[in-house]
Every structure is written in C-alpha cells, then in structure tokens.
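chain below, 159 aa
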Amino acid sequence: MTDTIARILVPVDFSPHADRAVAYATMLASRLGATLEFLHVVEDPVATGAWTGEFYAPNLSELLNDMVADAELRISVLKQSAAQVGITADSAVLTGYPTDAISDHARDGHFDLIVMSTHGRTGLPHLLLGSVAERTVRNAPCPVLTVKSTGALAQEAAA
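prediction:
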C-alpha cells in the first residue's frame, strides 16, 4: 500500500450519478496532483448471460462494437474536460462484467484509489440489481471512495 495517491481510477456509466463522482475525482486529483483514468465497462450481453442462445439479435458483434465506439466517444469528452482544468487523464473502455473488469484493471494499472458513484438503490431494487460499487469495494486491490448520488458531498463535488 502506498502512502500517496498519484493514480485515481474513475469507473463511469455515463449517468448523472457518475457525473458527480467525476466531479469529485477531478477536484481530488487537482488537490493531490494526481492523474485520472476514466473507465467504462461495456457489458457483453452474451458473455454476461443477458442474452442466451434462445434470444435472436442480428449481428451481436456489430452491436457490441457500436456500444464500445459510443463509449469511447463519450469517455473522450471526460478526458478533454479534465485536460481543460490541467489534469492529466487517460481513458479506457473494456468489455465484460463491470465489477471484475474494474477490479482487474485497478490491479493491472497499479491504481492508488478508485472513485465511483453509488446509485443509492435500496430495498428490492438493490436486492435484485445488486451494487457494482458494493462488489467493487469488496474485490478492489486498493481503497474505493464512493460518492453518494445525493447529499451535501455530492452537491459540493458537482459544483
């Protein structure tokens, strides 16, 4: 474990919740002199079991390629925004299961911190959908800072 935070990984799903985490991570990187890497994981519907052989979808590989290309375009905007405020940022788009991809990427990239949003689901939606943030906290090789989707902390980060 390192005693400095020099590399921050920011997983994003392009939701307003993720925007708050991006704002907070950007502020944190600015204060610490750290670099950022924005990461988006495109879930491969076949690999994750969302679409089985019983489901017909024309040209799944083309659909997956389109999803990756769209994510790369959207994530490049985040990278440019960070550069405009003087922060060095990289980006990556991976395919797979989000929790595994985030943890593996954090391990392989030797990140010091992961900053990510929580969607604030409770009750049945949380039980059924689970929480990528919660599973990442359990599996990550480094500390994970979760940014709540509501509250004073998120509002300050978004400002």
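DSSP finds six helices and five strands in the chain. Confidence is low (pLDDT under 50) at residues 125-129, 152-159.
thats it, cya
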